[in-house]
Amino acid sequence: MKIRKAVIPAAGLGTRFLPATKSVPKEMIPLVDKPTLQYIVEEAVNAGIEDILIITGRTKRAVEDHFDKSYELETELEKSGKLEYLKAMQDISDMANIQYVRQKEAKGLGHAIYCAKSFAENEPFAVLLGDDVVDAEKPCLGQMIERFNEHQATILGVQTVSDEDTSKYGIVKGNKIGDRMYHVDDMVEKPAPGTAPSNVAVLGRYIITPEIFRCLEETKPGAGGEIQLTDALRILAKKEDVLAYDFIGRRYDVGSKQGYLEATVDFALKRPDLREEFLQYLKKIVAAG
Ligand code: UTP
Q1: Mind listing the pLDDT tens digit for each residue in 72-106?
Q2: How many angstroms is it from 131 CA to the middle of ligand 1?
Q3: What are the phi and psi torsion angles at 133 (to 5°)?
Q4: Nearest CA to ligand 1 atom 15
Q5: pTM of the model
Q6: For residues 189 and 222, is the Cβ–Cβ distance under 8 A?
Q7: How far away, in angstroms, is 279 Cα from ligand 1 center?
Q8: What pLDDT digit, counting tens, does each position of 119-152 carry?
Q9: CA–CA separation, 141 vs 251, rounded Å?
Q10: Are β-strands 51-56 and 5-9 bridged in parallel, bridged antiparallel, or unpaired?
Q11: Which of 127, 131, 231, 256 to mutate to test the pocket of ligand 1 (most atoms within 8 A of CB)?
Q12: Less crowded by CB within 10 Å, the N or C end of the chain?
């Protein structure tokens, strides 16, 4: 089956980024001049996705406004001859067929994914977390869809992390079955230091079969009363094959301050219009210690 649909959960509270996230959705905080969420929508579109469902919540209205048409702004840009900006604005609203559903309470990532049950219509679908940006030559999701086409099974996007970092992620227990591919036997969410079954961490990209919705119905609330996607994926791994793919690309957790700052610097340095002046500035502050 072809992957046509993607779900982007963006209903989290963003507590690590308060006070900014009190009224601004963390997914709308820009990396240079583009909101994080736009990078993620572009990745999905470049991977061939046709329909996108963004899971939002209260205080997230800016997300819908961003991907909508802005007649007033477009008219002003046209009048003032700023045609480059005009085109950029039109491209955003034409990018994809985007729908929204509200998760009424932030009861966890698993609960957010369950809000996509009727959108998925019993098809396998992609999930891109709203605060994980992957900079890659070939879109990370496109790499994963290729693997899905070969295996027709759930695929988790993973990368190897250091021992100190295993306690921050869902960690895979399984076997390597081929080039960059693993078979997942089990998973542990944020294992205590020194107890991780491997260093293979799930990092914000998934392709999931619709059986996950039945697994989510069986999933009991875990830490903090939240329904964890990892717990539902563990149930899924007992029913059918769950694979993991070690994707090629640099992933940034832009929901953390360090990840956000690293992404901002790296993305600015990739911009031909900013690179030279910004690099000189960075060299100057590094030299000054
Ligand atoms: P995070 O745990 O990174 O997001 O969830 P958070 O809860 O907003 O972050 P902090 O810890 O409070 O700073 C990963 C992704 O899942 C979404 C988030 O929006 C983020 O994109 N999410 C999380 C939901 O959509 N609903 C939830 O109930 C929880």
Answers
A1: 889 999 999 999 888 888 888 888 899 999 999 88
A2: 8
A3: -105, 135
A4: 129
A5: 0.94
A6: yes
A7: 33
A8: 999 999 999 998 999 999 999 999 999 999 999 9
A9: 12
A10: parallel
A11: 131
A12: C
Given the structure tokens 């990745």, which residue do they identify? 43
Nearest CA to ligand 1 atom 25: 11
Distance CA 34, CA 90 (A): 14
CA distance 260 to 257: 5
Single-letter code of the amino acid located at 289: G
Number of helical H runs and strand E runs in the chain: 11, 13
What's the gap in Å between 150 CA and the centre of ligand 1?
31
What spacing in Å lies between the alpha carbon of 163 and ligand 1's midpoint?
Answer: 23
**pLDDT class for 69, splitting at 50, 70, 90?**
confident
Ligand 1 atom nearest to CA at 256: 13
